[in-house]
Amino acid sequence: MAQLIDISKVTISQRALVAQVRLADDAPLFTSDDPEGTGRIAGLMPQMLDHACYGDDGEAFGEVLDDTELAHLLEHVTVELLARTERAGAVCAGQTREVDAQTRTYELRLTCPDDVLVAGALSSAAWIVEWAYSGGGDPEPDIDAIASGLVALVDGLDDQDGQLGKSVFDEDATVAVSPLVLKEAAAEIAKSAQEPEEVAAHEDLEADAVESEVAEPETDDSLA
């Protein structure tokens, strides 16, 4: 599978996980650049279409899905995975902001109820998006199995050693996380998702159980 998304920098605090993401030169910049890939994502995660989304025209993500930034889609895939774990609370929130158009770099900010859970969800979301925009193919990602894998990842870590920052740092402190850690976590989760008989599936979410909200953008290049 081609690497279309490079998570180059991650910092975590009690308030949020902030990741710098660069899209490869041959990756679609907008979902409209590859409608088939976008359709694969919509087919896998139809609940995502009901996410609240106030930064673009319209109030639901489904209204902008056909023509929005790929990084914005990555944010909503991450939020949907978090919601399906049923560990992230009733409302998950995210924000995507363009950092440098020339280098195709964006910043994703995600609320952080559990640092390991959010980091794993972001990495798994990148893997799903890369699958969709690299031609798809079998087997297609099992979203519920991936969500279960995220839960297993968190439960399998020792509470003290597993926390990357939430319970160790003061509220305003941050800790940098190696992107390699995220890639390894996603690989383990993807592997477990290929064995659905060993993973308990979650029930589908109600439409109002997922909501992605953004703060008012500070600059004109902020995205929902």
Describe it.
Strands 5-1-2-4-3-6 form a 6-stranded antiparallel sheet. 34% of the residues lie in helices and 16% in strands. The protein has helices spanning 35-44, 70-85, 115-132, 143-155, 159-162, 179-193; strands at residues 5-12, 16-23, 94-100, 105-111, 175-177, 222-223. The protein has one domain.
The largest sheet is: 6 strands, antiparallel
Oligomer: single chain
CA radius of gyration is 16 Å
Poorly predicted sequence stretches spanning 5 or more consecutive residues: 162-180, 195-222
Number of helices: 6
Q: Distance between the terminal alpha carbons, to the nearest Å?
A: 28 Å
Report the helical percentage: 25-40%
**What's the overall geometry?**
globular
Strand content: 15-25%
Secondary-structure-based class equals alpha+beta
Number-wise, the strands total: 6
Q: Give the integer mean of the pLDDT values.
A: 74
Count of all domains: 1
Order of H and E elements:
EEHHEEHHHEHE
For the largest beta sheet, what order do the strands appear in spatially? 5-1-2-4-3-6
